[in-house]
Amino acid sequence: MAKQGVTTRVGQPRPNTAGTRAELVEAAITTLQTEGFGGSSARAIARTAGCNQALVFYHFGSVANLLLAALDATSERRMVRYGEAVDAADGLGPMVEVAARIYREDLDAGHMSVLAEMIAGSSSTPGLGAEVSARLEPWFGFAEDATLRALRGSPLADLVPTRDVAFAVVALYLGIEFLAHLDGDRSQAESLFSTAKRLSDLMGLVFPVAAHDGGDDPR
């Protein structure tokens, strides 16, 4: 007798495929954005996906693992988007403009909601904090590379501790996005980006950037 698959609804078998996992990840992203961490139960995610909650545990073992997979998915997408934008920027001023533009994209699309909810949930879920923290590490590396790229050819390149700057950039960026996410007021963040752009233009006058040889290595 053939073994029956996990069913989504009574009498409706659902194959255990990568497609099912992808559907659950997308449902988890949506549920985190709309219901928050506390409301992202297996039942709520399954309801969003239109399947049986047993599939959450079959494919991911736990709700926490599924939520981390959702965070991985959004992070990977945003890393690609940020990489494309930074590659098109040349210098500190354009880099600030890129940060401002993508900041608006993140808020409009709800990308930061997923990370914000996972960080919030870390305080009540043992072991989750370390997992979320590990997923922030690639962003520190990305910010450090972007800083090196923005400063290359400038006298500041050898003076600025890029790892410290990267940590500050990520912390500041997350902070202003979280605050805007909380109250919906973007005016202070927009003002901050405008000030940063004026300062970057001033620094460009004080510390002119030398012509670069066109190599790909920002270091």
What does this protein look like?
The structure is a single chain. By secondary structure, the chain is an all-alpha fold. The chain has a domain at 70-206: Tetracycline Repressor, domain 2 (Orthogonal Bundle). Helices cover 70% and strands 2% of the residues. It has nine helices and two strands; from the N terminus they run E-E-H-H-H-H-H-H-H-H-H. It has helices at residues 18-35, 42-49, 54-60, 63-87, 92-109, 111-122, 128-151, 162-183, 187-206, and strands at 7-9, 12-13. A two-stranded antiparallel ribbon has the order 1-2. Strand 1 and strand 2 (12-13) form a beta hairpin. Helix 4 (63-87) runs antiparallel to helix 5. It is elongated, with a radius of gyration of 21 Å. The chain starts with 6 loop residues before the first strand and ends in a 13-residue tail after the last helix. Residues 1-13 and 210-219 have low confidence and may be disordered.
Q: Which CATH class of the domain at 70-206? A: Mainly Alpha
Derived from helix and strand composition plus strand pairing, the structural class reads mainly alpha
Q: Can you tell me the overall shape?
A: elongated
Helix percent reads over 70%
Our estimate of the beta-strand percent is: under 5%
Separate helix tally: 9
Number of strands: 2
Cα gyration radius (Å): 21 Å
Most strands sheet: 2 strands, antiparallel
Features:
219 residues; mainly alpha; Tetracycline Repressor, domain 2; two-stranded antiparallel ribbon; 9 helices; elongated; disordered N terminus; disordered C terminus
